[in-house]
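Input set for joint prediction.
Command: fold jointly, output tokens.
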Amino acid sequence: MAQTAEEKRAEINQRVDDAVALKKPDRVPVFMQFTMFPARCYGLTYQEAFANQEKWLDVNERAIEEYQPDLFFSPNTGVMVGVKVHEALGSHHLKLPGYGLGPNTGYQWVEDAYIKPEEYDLFLEDPGDFAIRVALPSSFRSLESFRSMLPLRNLALSFTTPVLAPAYCTPEIAESLSAFARAAEESARWIQGYAAFSQKMAARGFVEFGTAPTLAPFDCISDMWRGMRGAMLDMYRCPDKLIKAQDILLPMMIGAAIGNAQASGEKRIFIPLHRGADGFMSVAQFEQFYWPHLKALIFALIDAGLTPVPFFEGTYDQRLKYLRELPPGKVVAWFDRTDMARAKDLVGDVVCLMGNMPVSLLQSGTVEEVRECTRKLCEVAGKDGGYIMTTNTTLDDCHPELVHAWVDATREFGQY
Amino acid sequence: MSEQLINAIADMDEEGAIALTKELLAAGTPPTAILDDCRTAMELVGSRFEHGEYFIPELILAGEMLKGVSAEVKPYMTSSQEAAKKLGKVVVGTVKGDIHDIGKDIVVFMLDVNGFEVHDLGIDVPVQAFVDKIVEVQPQVVALSGFLTLAFDSMKETVGAITQAGLRDKVKIMVGGGTVDEQVCKYAGADAFGADAMAAVSLAKGWI
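tokens >
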């Protein structure tokens, strides 16, 4: 008798949960970090993916059905919302295919110091005010007029609000609010579309990953406010403010993950990590500026019954020992270039390992090379369980034939 | 030579370095001597980076300090002051389709302070732009930077175009960037890949 969807999902979740708990599942689970790969696979341009959600979801559905992964990367990690949302907002911290980039170039973050060092003070004093009057205009051209608003707290008093209203809604501000409303309406359509897609794939027995992401507080600042240069200079020029800002961001990041998890029903929390890697800061700087808030985030998620999946982009060979501070069997450590044998040795009894299959091999290697690399990973990282197979980064430019070889090889060599 | 200034820069004391620079200039120190101290300090910084004591934040702060010191020194420079003799020429750029520049900028900076004449083509550089620049400045080294996986194909195309133009044997080509590895280097047809900015400097020095 064929498996029901519920049974299929239960089997997959058991397989993944066993790996997370450092046990031996029936075989090594496969997580496919699709991102834009489905578009390339089935002849949809990236630009079309960002313009037409129906077509975008269609190619994702086809990829999931064709490759049958244990976990599939949520399509909203490749295309968070359609390009029309960004057009309405005037996003200038992002370039998208068809919005600053060619039709098949993956989206790119335009990192810069959008927030100036002197603007930390307003965030520390009044984060809500900072969000509206400084953060929004710093990233979104359509909302530039918000800078001209007086401090928002003035609107707390009903006596004065009627006379203050014009100052808070000049014609320029009204136009910005209209743009925001247009963006919100378009965004809501995409969010609904994704929710429906999640339910559809779940009803067919598939398990999604990536619907409930969050960020390390340092990365919030480095990625979105100060840029890498700015955040690194802040470590030297205003270290106290950098840390205090993270204190405020931490509960926000915890709340975001828990909120998203409740909305989507997903328990595994994707945490892409950018700046704490080897080479990007010293171990001492990592200890002072990066790890404490990330660790607190991870613990809080575990307390909330969730499974943190930090994605340690770059190499973490020099900072693996910090993972020993985490409770065993509760966290998945997704590695990019970290030495997996070393990771298994140093922290394999604490965290479930994930990752490290090089996409460069799935782009330009041979089937034999792919199979051999897969076999080694299953053998070394997958020894006695506690491993989930995935790539070191997105599958965007990988060759379908090699991706099939990789998935098949995992099923073959990953049996316990 | 001011050991104090060299150490201030090498030890990441930004305020101290600028204050000392002002003092030295006020006391009549030749600007070229101060710039020489900067170069000595950068060698120390580079060496500490190579030995895993310093990382990207220190390279960035060193760059900021150099900018700050240069700004103090500039008004005192006379037009007769010659530029230091250059070790060789390097053409650098982030390949077509990729707009990442932080890594590239650090490589440009490190090559520059290590005595190379660097021609920075910027980001998202069309294949032909690399070829044209090579014809124009006749560098010994070409450095291709890329972070996204799409950069692998752009690097291959760029090397291909350089070959097509009959220039491949006139230059050494290195590749680098977050996702670049030996596999990518082979795929692209480059001569070597560097894991970081110091590797770029070593490779360039070795080839020239």
